[in-house]
Amino acid sequence: MVPEMFKPQCLPILIGSLPLSDHHEAMELILTYSPAIPLWPQLPLRNGEGMIRQFLSGFPGLQEEKNRYWIDTSRSDFEEQMASFYEDYMEVEQNGIFPEGSRFSLGSDTAPGFAAFLEKIATVETEYITLKGQVTGPVTTGIGVKDQHGKSIIYDDNLRDVLVKHLTFKAIWQINTLRNILGCDQPILFIDEPGIVSFGSSAFSGISREMVSDAVTQTVTGIQNSGGLAGIHICANGDWGPALTSPADIISFDAYFYFDNFILYRDQLIEFLQRGGILAWGIIPTADPALLEEIHIDTLLKKWLGQVETLAHFGFSRNTLLEQILIAPSCGTGSLPPNLAMKVLQLTAELSEKVRNL
After folding, report:
1. Contact 278, 2 (CB under 8 A)
2. CA distances (Å), 322 to each of 228, 229, 251, 343, in order?
């Protein structure tokens, strides 16, 4: 449950990716447009910073060749790597301390944005409310990463167990770092998990609701037990039940395109809001550059107000809803042209200001 102290009140929040190649430039933009909740930047234009690869370092059997990566369980030393992984996992689990250079840390090989973030936040004078990190979720990663035979590793019970533990500890390491180094009492950690709504489709046959729920819940509770707020970011459309019924504190969804589908899960949504859950309202569209070119702030405000009014009919006062909403883009901007990415950031900040001044 979200602590009483955190009232988002329609503040702006961003998703990690930007179409830049310089992390310091990215940090300047983040602090300009989301100063209350800054986050570390992910720059997929740079090698190794794709949303899945970025969090795989340290995974047993990881193989790479140019821009391709996979898990090779046929390696002669694979069992040894697995044993080493569990030894490292148990050491942190028992001691609660990540050793220097831990396989669960975010290193300069794939996440230099985190180091740039730490450096900048330590010197910035602007006061923030909280800080945000992110990790790609176990379902999306498990579907996207293949073994040497081209099979998604989520179908392998042993690899799935390692993956959930691996990503959960990548998240916890961020929480610990933001709390211990920067002194942030309660960081936000988003689990980027579009795959969570896709388990019922034919493309992912064999992935059960229980498998999805168990994997994501382990990561959510790991974040919460470490003192963080756990968000689930989903820019896709599908079955919202597992996300809404999870113990997550925040649900980030594409409100521009999928609001009507999202509210079909009325009972789960009501229960989520009644327990204090926060909605990161992804009202600024990022998936359609042509649409984004033409869109205007007044159009977004009108659309957002109508959606809030619809949700109020579920039995919530408008003031209650406004306290439990963050204004967000529908997804990251890493695949957009820089000028449109800038427009997304500007619209997010502007819409947030407008609705907070209503």
Report:
1. yes
2. 22, 19, 15, 24
Which DSSP letter does residue 61 get? T
CB hemisphere CA count around 3 (13 angstroms): 11
Token readout for 59 is 């995974």
Conformational region of residue 125, where left means phi above 0, alpha means psi within -120 to 50, and beta covers everything else: alpha
Residues ≥6 apart with Cβ < 8 Å to 17:
41, 42, 43, 44, 51, 332, 333, 334, 335
Reported as type and span, the H/E element at residue 254 is: strand 250-254
State the Cα–Cα distance between residues 252 and 6, nearest whole angstrom: 16
Rounded to two decimals, the pTM is 0.95
Q: pLDDT tens per residue, the chain (358 residues)? A: 444 557 899 999 999 999 999 999 999 999 999 999 999 999 999 988 999 999 999 999 999 998 899 999 999 999 999 999 999 999 999 999 999 999 999 988 889 999 999 999 999 887 899 999 999 999 999 999 999 999 999 999 999 999 999 999 999 999 999 999 888 999 999 999 988 776 665 556 777 788 888 999 999 999 999 999 999 999 888 788 889 999 999 999 999 999 999 999 999 999 999 999 999 999 999 999 999 999 999 999 999 999 999 999 999 999 999 999 999 999 999 999 999 999 999 999 999 999 999 8
Sign of the Cα torsion 120, 109, 103, 158 reads positive
The CA-atom distances, in angstroms, between 166 and each of 89, 98, 221 are: 8, 13, 14
Q: What are residue 250's DSSP bridge partners? A: 231, 278
3-class DSSP assignment, residue 282: strand
**Rounded-to-integer distance, Cα 345 and Cα 30, Å:** 8
**SS3 letters across 62-95:** EEEECCEEEECCCCCCHHHHHHHHHHHHHHHHHH
